[in-house]
Amino acid sequence: MTPLHQLTIEEALARLKAHTFSAVDLAKACLERIKAVNPGINAVVEVDEAGALAQAEAADARIAKGTMGALEGIPCLIKDNIQAVGTKTTAASKMLAGYESTFDATVIAKLRAAGAVILGKTNMDEFAMGSSTETSAHGATHNPWDLTKIPGGTSGGSAAAMAASMALFTIGSDTGGSIRQPAAMCGTTGFKPTYGRVSRYGLLAMTSSFDQIGPFARTVGDAKRVLDVIQGQDSFDSTSVSENLYVKGAPASLKGLKIGIPKEYFTPGMDADVEKTVRTAIAKLEELGATTVEVSLPSTDYALAVYYVLMPCEVSANLARYDGQRFGYSAPAATLKESYLKTRAEGFGPEVRRRIILGTYALSSGYYDAYYLQAQKARTVMKQEFEAALSGVDCLLSPTSPTVAWNLGEKFDDPIAMYMADIYTVSANVVGVPAVSVPCGFVRGLPVGLQLIGRAFEDERVLTIAAGYQAATDWHLKSPAP
Amino acid sequence: MTITRENILHIAKLAHVGVDESEIEKLREKLSTVLAYVGKLSELDLSKVEPTAHVNGISNTMREDEVKACDKTVRDALLTAAPAREGDYVKVKAVFS
What is the 3-state secondary structure (H, E, C) of chain A? Predict the structure, then answer.
C-alpha cells in the first residue's frame, strides 16, 4: 500500500471515509515524514504537532459522525507569510522573528472549516522577495531532487515540502511566479488563481495588486479541490471578486482544443534541454488531440521591467508598517526617528531594503512619471496583448522557467540573473490571469515545469486542460528519493 | 539612469531605512543596474495609453462606516505583540521632542 504521506487528497478522503485509517494516523504519518526528511531540506520552519493532532482528532470525530468536509483530515503546510493561529508568522524575516499569529487568514479559516489539518509553516524568501528561498532568515531550503540545488522561490518551502511528501497539499503565494516557479523546480503541481479569486486577508501584503494565494498538490485534481475551498469573495479583502465573475465550464477532453504558444517565450537564453522537454510535452498535447498555434505577446521583452517597477513601488508602501512600534522587531533607540531607521536597517535583509529603496525612488517626485506611471501604462498594453492572444485559443502554453534548478549560492549576488528566472511567470500576475505549472519531464535529473495560462476567471478551464495532460503522463507522480 | 550616493541617502531617509556607510556603494551599484534595466520602459511611446491600477477593473469597493467590535482574543494578542505597552495602550516614543 502507498505510504500515507504519499497519497493524493482524493485517495486519502476515500480511505478516511472507509475507515482504512484515521485522520490521526494520516497526520502522524506526515509529522514522522517531516521529522525524517526535513533536516536535510529545511522546507518546514515550524511544526505545530499538538495543534495538528488535536485538529486530526476533531476530524476523526466528524468522520465518525459522517459529516466530512471537503478536505476533512487532510494534512497541509502553510507558507510562513500567512497568519494561522497557533503558529508564528515570520515572513522568514528577522523583522517578525517569533511573531505569534494574531488571527486566521480567511484562507486558513476556510481550510479549517473544510476539516484540513494544519501541520505548520514552510520556508520562503524573506517577505516573498526572491526566486530561490535563499534570502530566508531561517536559512535556505534545499531542492529535494538534489540537495545542492535551490528549490525555487519564494514559496520554495511549500514546493519542496510537497515534492518530498511532507503533507498532502501545501499553500503558497504567487506575486511574480512564486508558486509556479518553485513548483517547476521541485517537480510538483502549483497553481496561481485569477487575481481576486482568493482572499488576501491574512496574507502579509507584498505587492497588493499582484499577490494571490494558491495550492501545491500532487495532482491538478487535488489542486482544484483546494481551490474550491479557499476561493470566494471576502468582505475583509476589497479586491476579492464575486463568484458571479467565475467562468464555469471546462472542455470535456483535449480533442479540438487550441493552445497558443507565444513565440517570444522560446528565447535564446533558455536551456536547450528545457526547451526540448517542453516541446516534447507540446507534442504530447498534440497527440492527445489539441492543436497548437503560434501567438505573439510583443511586450514580453518589457514584462520583467514592468514587474520590477510596479512591485518594488507597492512593496515600499506595504512594508512601511514594519517600523518597530506596534509589532515585530524593535531596535533600542533614543528617539522615534532613530527607532524607525535602526529597526528597518536591522530587521530587514539586504534584498528587502534594496526593493524598498528602489520602490521609494520610483515613486518619488520627479521619477514617478518616468517609472511608476510608465509601468502602469505598459501594464495596460500587456493586458490588451494577453486578451488578444487568448481570444482565439483555449489557453497559452510556455515553459515555467527558462532553466532547471541552479546551485545554491550561484545567482545570489546577481540581481538581474535572479530576476530573469521569473521571465515566463511575471506576466500572469501583471495581467491578473490564472496560471498553473505541472511537471513535464527531467533535465540532468532535475524537474522541468510546463505552464498553462488561461483567461481571467477561467481557472476551471486551465486546470482541466492541465489535468488532461496529467491523465496521459506520469511526471507529476514521480518523487525524489527517499 | 544612474542613481547617486546623494539619491540613496535621500531616499533611504524618506523610506526610514537606515543605511550603513559601508553598504551605500554596493547598494548604489545594484540599484543602478536594476534602474538601467527597468529604464528601457522609457523606449515605449505610451502617451495615449491609460494606466492600469487594478487589473480586474474593480474600483471603490465600499462598506458602511460602522464599528465592528474586535474579538477579545485577537485584541489581547495584538496588544501582547506590541514591543512596548502600558495597560491597553501601545507605548511609543514622542513624535515631537
Answer: CCCHHHCCHHHHHHHHHCCCCCHHHHHHHHHHHHHHHHHHHCCEEEECHHHHHHHHHHHHHHHHHCCCCCCCCCEEEEECCECCCCCECCCCCHHHCCCECCCCCHHHHHHHHCCCEEEEEECCCHHHCCCCCCCCCCCCCCECCECCECCCCCCHHHHHHHHCCCCCEEEEEECCCCCHHHHHHHCCEEEECCCCCECCCCECCCCCCCCEEEEEECCHHHHHHHHHHHECCECCECCCCCHHHCCCCCCCCCCCCEEEEEHHHCCCCCCHHHHHHHHHHHHHHHHCCCEEEEECCCCHHHHHHHHHHHHHHHHHHHHHHCCCCCCCCCCCCCCHHHHHHHHHHHHCCHHHHHHHHHHHHHHCCCCCHHHHHHHHHHHHHHHHHHHHHHHCCCEEEEECCCCCCCECCCCCCCHHHHHHHHCCCHHHHHHCCCEEEEEEEEECCEEEEEEEECCCCCHHHHHHHHHHHHHCCCHHHCCCCC
Percent of chain A having pLDDT more than 90?
93
> Residues of A numbered 184-213 whose beta carbons fall under 8 angstroms of chain B's beta carbons: which are they?
194-196, 209
Q: A with B: how many residue pairs have Cβ under 8 Å apart? A: 170
Residue with cell 481557472: A459
CB A211 within 8 A of CB A173: yes
Strands A258-262 and A395-399: parallel
The CB density around residue B45, as the number of other CB atoms within 10 Å, is: 8
Tell me the shortest Cα–Cα distance from B90 to chain A, in angstroms: 7
In angstroms, the Cα distances linking A450 to A105, A192, A299, A424, B24 are 30, 14, 21, 11, 40
Dihedral of CA A218/A221/A222/A226: which sign?
positive
Q: Nearest-CA neighbor of A96 among A156, A46, A153?
A: A46
pLDDT tens profile A158-172: 999 999 999 999 999
Residues A211-247 pLDDT 10s: 999 999 999 999 999 999 999 999 999 999 999 999 9
Q: Is B81's CB within 8 Å of A100's CB? A: yes
In the chain, the amino acid numbered A103 is F
Q: What is the pTM of this model?
A: 0.97
For residue B16, list chain A residues with Cβ-Cβ distance below 8 A: 320, 323, 337, 340-341, 344
* Residue B48 forms contact with A (CB below 8 Å): no
Neighbours of B79 (CB within 10 A): 15
- CB distance from B76 to chain A under 8 Å? no
Distances (CA, A) of A118 to A29, A58, A77, A166: 14, 12, 6, 12
Question: How high is the ipTM of this complex?
Answer: 0.94
What is the pLDDT, as a whole number, of residue A212?
A: 98
By the CB < 8 Å criterion, does A339 face chain B? yes
DSSP state letter for B42? G
SS3 of residue B21 by DSSP: helix
Whether the Cβ atoms of residue A184 and residue A449 lie closer than 8 Å to each other: yes
CA-atom Rg of chain A in angstroms:
21
